């Protein structure tokens, strides 16, 4: 199949809407992409027109997206471009949708802390050992998994998450 794949850099324009459907779970949101150009006369950047896309993310990508993304956050979206036409109120309208394959925060505009989700694999034995089913360490900073159960195997034996600690130092550096 010859799908057109695109990579867009922009901002989340609407709240992520997450639904369980017959075809599987899906998350949808509107995505704003504004072209920026260097203006020689003004010696500065100028905003161009803003394009809006409806982004759909299915299954685990949709669930992770709904848990990770808020309005206004800068993202990079990679996926299949879908253009459709519809008639509404007697006028033909064109809609541009993206079926997302990958979505991530735009790290040129801020920092992010990644947390791997656990996948339930029916053929795998449940993990055992130190840190399995442990609670997040007390006194966590912003973005920590405090007051929620940590997925099995994500917390080291000493109960301290080195990635969260390092990210917290970056964000709160003087």
Structural class: mainly beta
Helix content: 10-25%
> How many strand units?
6
Spans of at least 5 consecutive residues with low confidence:
121-151
Strand content: 35-45%
Continuous helix count: 2
For the terminal residues, how far apart are their CA atoms? 52 Å
Order of helices and strands: EEEEHEEH
Principal-axes geometry comes out as globular
Rg for CA atoms? 20 Å
Overall pLDDT score:
78
Placed side by side, the strands forming the largest sheet appear as 1-3-4-6-5
What summary fits the major beta sheet?
5 strands, mixed, barrel
Which short descriptors sum up this protein?
174 residues, five-stranded mixed barrel, mainly beta
Question: Could you walk me through the main structural features you see in this protein, from its secondary elements to its overall organization?
Answer:
With 174 residues, this protein is mainly beta. Helices cover 11% and strands 43% of the residues. The protein has a five-stranded mixed barrel.
Quick recap:
The chain has two helices and six strands; from the N terminus they run E-E-E-E-H-E-E-H.
How do the helices and strands line up, and which of them pair or pack?
Layout: E1 5-12, E2 17-21, E3 24-39, E4 44-58, H1 59-68, E5 74-88, E6 91-105, H2 162-171
Parallel strand pairs: 4-6
Antiparallel strand pairs: 1-3, 1-5, 2-3, 3-4, 5-6
């Amino acid at each position: 199949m010859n799908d057109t794949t695109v990579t867009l850099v922009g901002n989340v324009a609407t709240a992520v809407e997450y639904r369980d459907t017959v075809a599987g779970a899906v998350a949808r949101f509107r995505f704003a992409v504004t072209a920026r150009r260097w203006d020689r006369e003004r010696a500065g950047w100028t905003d161009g027109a803003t394009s809006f896309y409806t982004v759909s993310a299915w299954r685990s990508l949709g669930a992770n997206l709904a848990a990770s993304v808020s309005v206004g956050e800068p993202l990079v979206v990679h996926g299949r471009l879908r253009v459709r036409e519809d008639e509404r109120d007697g006028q033909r309208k064109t809609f541009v949708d993206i079926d997302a394959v990958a979505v991530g925060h735009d790290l040129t505009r801020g920092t992010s802390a990644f947390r791997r989700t656990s996948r339930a694999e029916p053929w795998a034995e449940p993990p055992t050992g130190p840190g399995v089913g442990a609670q997040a360490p007390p006194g966590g900073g912003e973005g920590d998994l405090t007051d929620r159960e940590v997925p099995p195997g994500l917390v080291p034996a000493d109960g301290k998450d080195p990635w969260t600690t390092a990210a917290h130092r970056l964000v709160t550096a003087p």
